[in-house]
Amino acid sequence: MSDNHCRFCEHPLQHTFVNLGGSPISNDFLNSEQVDKSEKFYPLHTYVCDRCFLVQLPEVESREHIFGDGNYAYFSSYSESWLKHCQRYTNLMVERFGFDRSSQVIEIASNDGYLLQYFQAQNIPVLGIEPASNVAAVAEAKGIPTLTKFFGVQTATELVELNKQADLLLGNNVLAHVPDLNDFVAGMKLLLKPAGVITIEFPHLLQLITQNQFDTIYHEHFSYFSFLTVERVFAAHGLTLFDVEELPTHGGSLRIYGRHSEYTELAITDRVAELKAKEVAAKLDTIDTYLDFTKQVESIKRQLLTFLIQAKNEGKSVVGYGAPAKGNTLLNYCGVRTDFIDYTVDRSPHKQGLFLPGTHIPVYHPDLITETKPDYLLILPWNLRSEVIEQMAQIRDWRGKFVVPIPRLEIL
């Protein structure tokens, strides 16, 4: 995508969705040597195309820098609720489509093998495609065959030449991460067997807007999709979306089901028309809906800062739980640093001992919370609020309270 044209339809981009100012790359955590050196900030300015209604960020940094330099910090296997979701998904796919040991399952952006392990446990052949070498190495160590490459037409062509195509081609939370959207979907068309099925999960733009989820905007996410828009993208590459599910994951996601347009044995379900009607009723096909979002975002910023200022004026301590990318967007946009939040904790050892990008808030092991007994625990991965509240229930012992910033500030 050029700086001022839509990455899908090449229409000029003239409308701001929301401008979150400058922010570092959300997963560029800092070590103790880097924390006192200059840090690069990039514009976090999202646009909306008034032709196809794709919400998008310009590509301000290469995908190689963000995902492929061997230091990618996100590992999928540290959320128990996410692993349960993946296990349910595996059972659903096997039950619905009858995949077995004669099938080939291929996952794009397979991370640390968090999902493919469940297919493998049912003796179904799997292949992961993962560009982050450090994450792919963890999957390989688990016995998950993994190709360390970015996905697109070139990678798909190489696999087809090796007689490797997918009965099930899946990607969880990857579609938004793709700067060259058309190349990616064209690659899926090539890699899918004639009667194969595609499933893709991604955060639903309707939920982002209605639930004020602006913190899910960060430089790893190049695009933000409604069903109306994603259907157009897939149709442009000869792929028909024949079913869709609304999921609770990541604050509200879609799971789309695709097939070759010429393969008509999988009928289009009623859920497709129902969701399209729901999005039209929410006016996702009207440009004014997108232009009003900035006011909602500014309101959340004021709520969080008002709470933090009041807490500090009262001598209360506030710490964070989690070091997710969304948390880094929230904290950088609101200008929150160690003057408001003493530290944050994360279960992933790959983040512990580092500092959050931009804000330089230190990341520790969750055990530190019991030692320091903070008055408030700000849940940065608010999509996991139930899981976090259960894990950290001990803060009630010293009358500590949980704070959830999205979709509105709540003190629990």
Report on this model:
This protein has 412 residues and is of the alpha/beta class. It folds into two domains: 76-290, Rossmann fold (3-Layer(aba) Sandwich), CATH 3.40.50.150; 307-411, NAD(P)-binding Rossmann-like Domain (Rossmann fold, 3-Layer(aba) Sandwich). 33% of the residues lie in helices and 20% in strands. It has helices at 63-67, 80-97, 116-121, 133-141, 153-161, 181-191, 205-210, 227-235, 270-281, 287-291, 293-313, 325-334, 367-372, 385-391; strands at 15-23, 42-48, 55-56, 105-108, 126-129, 146-147, 166-172, 192-203, 223-224, 239-247, 253-260, 318-321, 344-345, 363-364, 376-379, 401-404, 410-411. The strands form three sheets. It has a seven-stranded mixed sheet with strand order 6-5-4-7-8-11-10. It has a six-stranded mixed sheet with strand order 14-13-12-15-16-17. The protein has a four-stranded antiparallel sheet with strand order 1-2-3-9. Helix 14 (385-391) links the parallel strand 15 (376-379) and strand 16 (401-404). The mean pLDDT is 95.
Key words describing this protein structure:
Rossmann fold; 412 residues; seven-stranded mixed β-sheet; globular; single chain
Structure, briefly:
The chain is an alpha/beta fold and 412 residues long.
Number of helices: 14
**Widest sheet: strand order?**
6-5-4-7-8-11-10
What's the CATH first level of the largest domain?
Alpha Beta
Overall number of structural domains: 2
Radius of gyration: 21 Å
GO molecular function: methyltransferase activity
Keywords: Methyltransferase, Transferase
InterPro entries: Methyltransf_Zn-bd_dom_put, Methyltransf_Zn-bd_dom_put_sf, MeTrfase_14, SAM-dependent_MTases_sf
Domain C-methyltransferase: 248-407
